[in-house]
Amino acid sequence: MHRFANPGRFLRLAGAVLPWLWATALAVTAWGTAWALLYAPADWQQGETVRIMYVHVPMAWLAMGGYLGLGILSVMSLIWRHPLADLAARELAPVGAAVTALCLATGSLWGKPMWGTWWVWDARLTSVLVLFFLWLGHAALVRAFDETERGARAGAILALVGLVNLPVVKFSVDWWNTLHQPASVTRLDAPGMHVDMLYPLLVCAIGFSLLFGAIVLARTRSAVMERRIRALEMARARRADRPLAAAPATLAGD
């Protein structure tokens, strides 16, 4: 991993992977969305409203999986202190906050016709809202310091503390009595939905996951390039200041 974490190697690898990743992500997402909206059957109870599931469920998975990735990057940052892990975590946080916001918004749209209300303070919804605030807190904290290293350290500590919330999000429907339905796809015995709905859901999840990865990779690549350009500009500015600093002494000697 250290070999690929080298900024130069990362830029070359990301530059080669990104076009293929974007193309695959857009193709799979278009395929899954068309399958879900046009060909997947309506639910016998929820009717056409169930189609919100094809966005809501992948967003929920990405919100939790992305935060787990943020925790892994935070461990790498605190132990090995590699700046690429800091940059990746910094660029991941806004994307994670966006998918968590989409999860909450689509959940509210789905909850209104099913529960009769946009929001209830049950364990699953509240813990996902806490997850959204953790994403926002990390994104704000790493940008709150003039020294980027201090911001990265503070953000990493916050991300690791926030990992405690992930089991609460996952198992809240099992630990407490909530309006939110229990897991129907990740059950150990068998999925709780028909394959005509399960397969397009999985394709949508793969497509959105690839898009998520492409966005984070592109943002991280841009951040690495921006930091290298800034470092070059600072080096040029220092070189330009040296003759100016020596000029008065030369003139005085003359």
Tell me what the structure shows.
The protein is 80% helix and 0% strand. It is mainly α. The chain has a single domain (19-179, 192-222), classed as Up-down Bundle (Four Helix Bundle (Hemerythrin (Met), subunit A)), CATH 1.20.120. The radius of gyration is 23 Å and the shape is globular.
Structural class: mainly alpha
CATH fold label: Four Helix Bundle (Hemerythrin (Met), subunit A)
Unreliable spans: 244-254
Shape summary: globular
Percent of sequence in beta strands: under 5%
CATH class: Mainly Alpha
Q: What number of domains?
A: 1
Rg from C-alpha positions? 23 Å
Question: Quick one: how many beta strands?
Answer: 0
**N-to-C series of helices and strands:** HHHHHHHH
Name the average pLDDT. 86
The termini sit apart by 58 Å
Residue share in helix: over 70%
Q: How many strands, which pairing sense, and closed or not: the largest β-sheet?
A: none
CATH architectural grouping: Up-down Bundle
Count of discrete alpha- or pi-helical segments spanning 4 or more residues: 8
